[in-house]
């Protein structure tokens, strides 16, 4: 099997980009289907792509799709010439070993996913003989997350060609019924809007998207190369405001709890804002804009504080004050004058924020600490572990810490760990024209606390996912899954105990709350449990060290293997016909730099800048050190660009086909820089 290796430099490549468009006669995606089924607010999506090699010589055919970051891939298979090739999920180390062996046998090995804002890439390829066909089938699963009063199912479609048989089918089963359902995203615009059909009954909804070949060339982000964009199904369900929905099936249950008819709990919120030199320019402008919006949204019985920091700590006021109009005016004035300069003393800034909240404990209120930073600590205490331990001590579990990492120069893992250690979460704010909206959006998620000290109790339940939550916010949802002891529904008694303002309230079982799923042998609830358990174990692992960490990691690994989830601890080895390259798929962690194994291509550019460990031999480039090479943090500064450069490297291997992919990555890079 001859594989043509294109040997051109990056610049030559750019010049030739216009003239070497893919030869559409080479191969043909004659069918592309995406089928997404949501039950128990858990989505299982299958992408099926059928491709024919129209040439009278064998061709390498690529399968290249994007899936949501939150999802776990659970299956990948290829059908070629009557044979099925099933991908196998293995422990990462084991897969890595297999992969290294493939490399040492001289087979170039493969390729992994990279990170965008909400999506990850899956890419593999296989050689298909003359006039033969291949079917690729990828399955991924994700728990729908309710944010700001809605669920969003994002489906990305970029088949790389107009496809005559293109279909997206979405089916949502929802016992509680829908309060609304909408279809948004770039693929719902212009001519494509006509290709969408949306129907729903009491308990089920369907969205069909069947664009014709002509329509596939006529949307905002479509071209001769077909569609490239998202279909986003946005919906919410009816709520009974009691204990919520509990579904059980086959020994397992999942409980969705999201009451909304409760009074808001007044909050105490302190914003700790990085104003170090690296924030200068657009970042600080957007931060000011967002802060002013956020201040406008505070309620009169909220209390707030504002700290900005570089190497020094600047208090707007040393103590929390009430959000009355006089204080808000003064705070907005302060916010609009924040200037970027100096270094970054995260430790002292967060400790000061915690002190303000600790000095101001109010009965029946909810305290929240929000840190916004764009870089690593550079002054004061700079040892990351010391900062984490100081912060943990200062907060002592009394309120959550939310960390917002602005851009890609932050050590996201550090922020993530610090948030998780203090009952919060970390979120990345992407450097983009909408960063102020991202900041504001995050604030809105936590703007309305309805309950504090939420304890979910399940008498007759075992192997429960997280049951204690320090705060519950309007528009969100608490999800707990577990096993029903001895599968005995009679003794299974769910209950929620929480504090609403000053009142202790109990939500308990009404007759309607426990539903059994109708379908036979439905293992979905069990998969929901496994998905949640693995996610939570991975978070826990991040916070621990030593033997405890290993234990949790082992548990997460075993579950990932049992349920065939590609998680950060496992990899999928793509099985191919004999004699082909081995591809190993890894799931990147959030905050991890995109990592990519370099394909067997001679690029003077890559050798010079990105591949110090490759050396030339007569047969081409060989890798004498098969390790993953993360991009340097410096490159990472313009991470869109960096991944763009990486994208270009794979050109030689995939021949003409990925040229269309290249122009897409370039578009992305440009958007990222705007
Ligand atoms: C989508 O997948 C579901 C579940 O596997 C299946 O029942 C259904 O028939 C599929 N729909 C289409 C249009 O293929
Ligand atoms: C197909 O094969 C025939 C005979 O082997 C050859 O003459 C012809 O050039 C080939 N066509 C293409 C498009 O490669
Ligand atoms: C919570 O959200 C619902 C809508 O989702 C709204 O009707 C209700 O007023 C909100 N509660 C508070 C206290 O803001
Ligand atoms: C579930 O809990 C039981 C005991 O309560 C334990 O024996 C079993 O191993 C647990 N299963 C899993 C998958 O953790
Ligand atoms: C959950 O909270 C309850 C009471 O607030 C406490 O007794 C229990 O130990 C907590 N459980 C966990 C796992 O933290
Ligand atoms: C269930 O319904 C019956 C009759 O309607 C009622 O007597 C009973 O108290 C209800 N049980 C619960 C737990 O609400």
UniProtKB/TrEMBL annotation:
Signal sequence extent: 1-20
MF GO annotations: serine-type endopeptidase inhibitor activity
Basic and acidic residues: compositionally biased ranges: 583-598
Keywords: Glycoprotein, Protease inhibitor, Secreted, Serine protease inhibitor, Signal
Residue intervals passing through the bilayer: none
PROSITE patterns, A to Z: VIT, VWFA
Region (Disordered): 577-598
Subcellular location, record wording: Secreted
SMART domains attached to this UniProt entry: VIT, VWA
Annotated Pfam families: VIT, VWA
Example of a GO cellular component annotation carried by this entry: extracellular region
Domain VIT: 13-142
Domain VWFA: 268-446
Keyword Glycoprotein in annotation: yes
PANTHER family: INTER-ALPHA-TRYPSIN INHIBITOR HEAVY CHAIN FAMILY MEMBER (PTHR10338), INTER-ALPHA-TRYPSIN INHIBITOR HEAVY CHAIN H4 (PTHR10338:SF119)
Family statement: Belongs to the ITIH family.
Protein name (record): Inter-alpha-trypsin inhibitor heavy chain H3-like
Species this protein is from: Pundamilia nyererei
């Amino acid at each position: 099997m001859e594989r043509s290796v294109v040997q051109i430099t990056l610049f030559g490549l750019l010049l030739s980009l216009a003239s070497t468009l893919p030869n559409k006669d080479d191969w043909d995606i004659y069918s592309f289907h995406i089928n997404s089924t949501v039950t128990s607010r858990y989505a299982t999506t299958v992408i099926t792509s059928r491709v024919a090699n129209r040439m009278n010589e064998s061709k390498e055919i690529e399968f290249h799709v994007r899936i949501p970051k939150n999802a776990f891939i659970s299956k990948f298979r290829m059908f070629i010439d009557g044979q099925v090739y099933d991908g196998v999920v293995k422990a990462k180390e084991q897969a890595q070993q297999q992969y290294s062996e493939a490399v040492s046998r001289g087979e170039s090995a493969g390729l992994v996913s990279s990170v965008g804002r909400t999506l990850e890439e899956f890419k593999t390829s296989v050689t298909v003989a003359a006039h033969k066909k291949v079917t690729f089938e990828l399955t991924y699963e994700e728990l729908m997350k309710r944010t700001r009063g809605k669920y969003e199912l994002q489906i990305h479609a970029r088949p790389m060609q107009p496809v005559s048989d293109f279909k997206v089918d979405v089916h949502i089963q929802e016992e509680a019924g829908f309060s609304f359902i909408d279809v948004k995203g770039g693929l719902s615009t212009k001519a494509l809007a006509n290709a969408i059909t949306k129907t729903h009954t009491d308990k089920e909804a369907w969205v069909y998207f069947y664009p014709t070949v002509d329509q596939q060339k006529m949307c905002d982000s479509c071209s001769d190369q077909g569609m490239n964009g998202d279909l986003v199904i946005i919906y919410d369900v009816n709520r009974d405001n009691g204990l919520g929905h509990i579904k059980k099936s086959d020994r397992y249950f999942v409980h969705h709890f999201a009451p909304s008819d409760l009074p808001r709990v007044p909050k105490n919120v302190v914003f700790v804002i990085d104003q170090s030199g690296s924030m200068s320019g657009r970042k600080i402008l957007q931060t000011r804009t967002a802060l002013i919006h956020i201040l406008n949204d505070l309620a009169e019985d909220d209390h707030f504080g504002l700290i900005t920091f570089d190497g020094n700590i600047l208090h707007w006021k040393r103590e929390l004050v009430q959000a009355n109009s006089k204080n808000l005016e003064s705070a907005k004035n302060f916010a609009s004058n924040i200037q970027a300069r100096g270094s970054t003393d995260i430790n002292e800034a967060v400790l000061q924020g915690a002190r303000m909240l600790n000095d101001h404990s109010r009965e029946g209120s909810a305290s929240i600490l929000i840190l916004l930073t764009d870089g690593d600590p550079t002054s004061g205490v700079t040892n990351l572990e010391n900062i984490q331990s100081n912060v943990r001590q200062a907060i002592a579990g009394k309120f959550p810490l939310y960390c917002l990492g602005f851009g890609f120069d932050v050590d996201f893992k550090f922020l993530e760990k610090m948030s998780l250690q203090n009952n919060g979460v970390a979120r990345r704010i992407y450097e983009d024209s909408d960063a102020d909206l991202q900041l504001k959006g995050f604030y809105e998620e936590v703007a309305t606390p309805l309950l504090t000290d939420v304890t979910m109790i399940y008498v007759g339940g075992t192997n429960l996912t997280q049951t204690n939550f320090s705060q519950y916010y309007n528009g969100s949802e608490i999800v707990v899954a577990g096993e029903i002891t001895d599968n005995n529904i009679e003794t299974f008694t769910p209950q929620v105990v929480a504090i609403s303002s000053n009142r202790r309230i109990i939500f308990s079982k009404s007759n309607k709350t426990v539903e059994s799923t109708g379908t036979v042998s439905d293992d979905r609830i069990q998969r929901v449990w496994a998905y949640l358990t693995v996610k939570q174990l991975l978070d826990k692992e991040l916070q621990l060290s030593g033997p405890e960490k290993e234990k949790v990691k082992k548990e997460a690994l075993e579950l990932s293997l049992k349920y065939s989830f590609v998680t950060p601890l496992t990899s999928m080895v793509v099985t191919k016909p004999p004699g082909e390259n081995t591809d190993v798929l890894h799931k990147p962690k959030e905050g991890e730099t995109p990592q990519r194994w370099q394909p067997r291509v001679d690029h003077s550019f890559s050798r010079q800048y990105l591949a110090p460990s490759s050396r030339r031999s007569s047969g081409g480039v060989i890798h004498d050190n098969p390790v993953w090479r993360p991009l340097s943090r410096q490159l990472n500064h313009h991470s869109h660009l960096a991944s763009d450069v990486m994208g270009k490297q794979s050109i030689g291997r995939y021949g003409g086909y990925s040229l269309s992919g290249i122009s897409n990555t370039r578009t992305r890079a440009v958007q990222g820089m705007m």
